[in-house]
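Weekly structure sync, notes
Attendees: PL, DS, HV (note-taker this week)

Item 1: DNA invertase Pin-like site-specific DNA recombinase
DS walked through the input record. Source organism listed as Sporosarcina psychrophila. Sequence as pasted into the shared doc:
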Amino acid sequence: MKFAYIRVSSKDQNEARQVDTMVAQGVPEANVYIDKASGKDTDRAQYQALKGKLRAGDIVVFDSISRMSRSMDDTKREYEWYITKGIALEFVKEPMLNTTGTAQDDVLQRAIGDIILTILSAFAEKERDDIRVRQAEGIAAAKSRGQRLGRPAITWQTLDTDTRRLFIAQYSRWKAGEQTAVETFKNVGMTKSTFYKIAKEYEAVAH
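Item 1 (cont.): predicted structure, written out as tokens:
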């Protein structure tokens, strides 16, 4: 049987292009396994599910070797796992690594494939490391300019009119002893610390 594996790095990325590519490669859409996860390791739910489904003689299609993993050691280990199990591999962007249509015991073919695999997986790992470095540099630069990172702080002043009305109503019920503090946190959709902070700010402007 012919299968395909797709990995996109985040929930915001769309896998539709890769799905279309796999269908064009002759993979039934029902046999396409998709993970939305980092390629830092191979501990991904759908990837492991695919490996558990495979049998000798099956074919697995990847858009690129980097979709298997961005770690050089992991990539080489996974590649060898497929070869050992008698499962053929096809790579849309790196057809020179394909094991379909070549003799599995062809020493020269395997040697060439191993060299190319090492080079490509090394580049994939370097790219992942470069991304991490750029992210760290961006965070450091933002901090040096005094920019706040993460979600903006919630204050009484940042609440919209409807949220303020809800807060006041629930705050009043809490103060009157009509409901517990925990019930109040849930009703206004705030954490304990945020609620008490907003309560203090509200008391300061209300009195």
